[in-house]
Queue: 4 jobs
Job 1
Amino acid sequence: MKQLNPLVYVVLFVTSLFTHTLLNAQLKLPTGSQKASVSQTVGTTEMYINYSRPSVNGREIWGALVPYGMNNLGFGTATASPWRAGANENTIIKFTSDVKVEGKPLAAGKYGLHIVVKEDGGATIIFSKNYTAWGSFFYEPSEDALRVEVQTKTIPHVEQLTYTFVDVTANSATAVLNWEKKQFPFKIEVDVTNVVLADIRKKLQEDLSLWLDDNYEVNRERYNSKLYVEDETSSALVKGVPPIFSETSEEVAGRMILRENFDYIFANNPKVVTFGEDAGHIGGVNQSLEGLQEKYGEIRRKRIY
């Protein structure tokens, strides 16, 4: 019997993928491994994992259905592929801001998630810049954005592959993949303070620019046009109102009055933040914020360079 050229297999496989993709684009059809998604917010950073959920279904998984190490899957363009960490299309993980995974930096964005499963219990988590490929059949190492090493854990049987987030704190969460009796955990950290401040800066710059554009002409008539007039609308004709003090009034520095005012505002409204070139440890250019950073925390008062 005459054997087909390996190139023919590649062409047939690509044709099958194209037909499948075309049909899915036109028809919404069920799949054997159901699609799922999970999300988690840390600070203001959102994390998403979109994946498909294969079942154990009595099969031997590790070292069999999912081979150890990198393998030639016999299809696609990759000669050595990791596991696609799911089924069907790429497993996709997304971060809305920069994060650290197992202590290593990873930029905001979408990534194809792959795993190299090791026989000794270790695993390599791979974040690929290519998140649109079909599984790992077209995996290309040069497209890796990050690789991290983790240790797997033994868990009670999980029939359907499941992703979830555990150990959620104010600035971190651990993503875990559970399937059969194995768990793959990887810790994700967020610099919440700097992410929030960067977002505030961006929105303030955008909002302030729009506000200035909207109000410039209106306020020019209301204020600017009155600066140099000599009629009855002149600001020079506004009568002063002198302060009145009793003989027992306590004399304090003006900055102390301002500081007590800011202290009251911070204590009664947790949504209030202040920032500026001198608003950090220096306490403001006239010390009107003295000691408030230590009292209310860095995220409520921040120096902006």
Job 2
Amino acid sequence: MTPLASESEWETDPELIALRAEFVASFEARRRGLETALPALRGEGAEFAAAFGKVVEIAHKLAGAAGSYGFGALTQAASAFEDWAGLRESGHDPDIARAGVELMIEMLERSAAVGKDVTEFVDDPRLRALQNASARR
């Protein structure tokens, strides 16, 4: 996803600052949704499926929107989770699911705290695990 503006524009243009702040304000609800689903990802059956569906929905929305607001690393993590989740033919490793959710939670928290993209997560082993699991399928 291509950002709507450069990072310097996000930091200096009053309209873009307000737009980004509105998007960042949505992070709390998204984080809570992920945290609520996390315990059920330790289970199986219907409980796991419902939680997994909720997480995929949140990841899908983040993958589609975050990059437009200059959150490229968050888009990368959410897209990796969504890509991995879309490969349903051989089931899902609950450890990878939990690691991916924990990664997105941490990224949302950190991004909300600083108000901009958090690129230090690009090399996170949890992100690499999602990407590698997708590539193996």
Job 3
Amino acid sequence: MKSKPCLPPFFTRAGICGQLLGIWLLCSLASSLAEQQPYPNTNRPYLRPGHPDGVALLPQPPTVTEQPKSSRLEVANELDLVRRAVFSRTPEETVEALNTQELIRAKHPVEESFLLFTNEVGLKFVNNLTSNTLHYTYYLLTNLMPKLTTNDLQYILTNPCLKGLIITNEQTKKLEINTDEDRIELIIACPKEHFNRWRPYQYDARLLYGKMEANPGYPSGHATRGWLYALLLERLFPEKREAILEKGREIGWDRVRLGMHFPSDVWAGQVLGQAIWQELMANPTFMKDLTNAVNQIRAWETNISREASPH
């Protein structure tokens, strides 16, 4: 009687089943970990510190005067334009402007900033931004606006215009970076300090609504971010382009309604936002990530349509 060959345990039926079970468990564990940590810190910021250079890019802001000193009435009347926007503001516009003022700031997580575009891109997109189904899009947004780290400290310390991004640790008394801020703030802060333009409420106290801002007004940081976000979102949702761009413009004008900015501050912010976008478009890594995000959103939209259609 021939004896059966002695097979290694992993070649037996029980061994093969055990291997398959092990593979299944590993896949389940990997999937579980992916659900818990879908957004690893890729640490690949697309923008170099201080690029583009807003000081070199932007013209000197108009001089605000109560009486026209030239034929350029639009310059002389900027303060009157702000007064009209503030004093004609409706309660609904006030609520919207305050919401814009708060959510667009760098201290908020990426997904909160894009809540401003909920009506334009849809609540499902905003709600799913922190899910695995849109992880490429989330990577794109977080790498666009990475928080400042200790790696940025040397650059900030060598640029006096960025002094507002340094805070003193109350316990150690050492200088530290304000980690509530992000890389885009490195681009906005220098022209603000360089041009050092007063805000409308500093000319007319009646225009102030809420707290005074800690920095000068030109260019508008909210307008910069709002326009940059709009330019990005209209690439992700080209069929909603007009509504998205209109919202981007509205974010800047909301600041005029609150007496925080002159119209020329908003214009300068949008110019700076456009320049940041051009800088991004010249970055091959950004363009690759943008393509991945666009493809992922199209697939996500297709799945939603299938789920919504009757079976």
Job 4
Amino acid sequence: MASRKNSANACNGEYMKILILDDMDIRHELFKVVLAPHELTHVHTAREALAALMTDEFEMVFLDHDLESEEENGFMLTELIVENKIETTADFIIHSTNPEGAENMYKTLKANGYLAQKRLFGDLIQLGIEKIGAWQNA
């Protein structure tokens, strides 16, 4: 994997590039509010997320498991990340309310050397995503 950027510095005044995969527009709107003024890329499908990861570098990636499409979900994305050997320094935050799906995504990413953690979406909003720096060190 590529050398790790200092994401802690990004949280201390610099803008972070953040990718958000979720199929619910209301969640995207909430992310916009709590993550302003960071640079956000919003996608709704696993394929859109994979394309973004293949063409850009992000400090953080928020992933949902249950997406609108029955053929695509967040777990499929984690498998594609591994299969395509995506080189990224991003911290993956799995915010799915599907505990089994989130666990499978988490295990797949961690087993393949990616930084990953699970957070309930409601907890992210309640705690305030501005505390990202502290979560990275958890």
